[in-house]
Every structure is written in structure tokens, then in C-alpha cells.
Amino acid sequence: MKKNEILHFYKAGGVNHFINVSTDDNLFAAVTFTDLELAQIFKKYPLAKDNLFALVDGVEIKLRDQADAQ
Questions:
Q1: Does residue 30 sit in helix, strand or coil?
Q2: Do the domain assignments include residue 55?
Q3: Domain that holds residue 28
Q4: How confident is the model at residue 34, as a pLDDT?
Q5: How many CB atoms lie within 10 A of CB 66?
């Protein structure tokens, strides 16, 4: 199975700010987070709220909050 290159970031002031989000090699786990994981990410990176992205093998994906999905 191919290992994907995954980076997480938020955008502010026209700049991508990369963040340290620990995920395993599972692509699904890298683009989905539990409510607890999101709370921890937003506590450490408040500007990522409603502004969280994943770059997967060069493709930018906007990640939605759980509340947004409902």
C-alpha cells in the first residue's frame, strides 16, 4: 500500500501555517478527527477553527468541523 504524504495547515493573512497534527499512516484518520481531537487542535491553534486543511499528495482538502457537517 502506498504511503501518502499528508500535511495539515490553516490559512491566515494569505499564508499557509503548517501545524503539527499527529496521525498514523491511515489516510482516513488523517482527514477525519474526533470532537476531542478537534478541540485539542483548536486549543493549540485557534485560527484553525473553520479553517483547517490537509494537503494530501499535493491535493488541498478543506476539513470541516463536526458541527458543520450536521
A1: helix
A2: yes
A3: 6-69
A4: 87
A5: 12
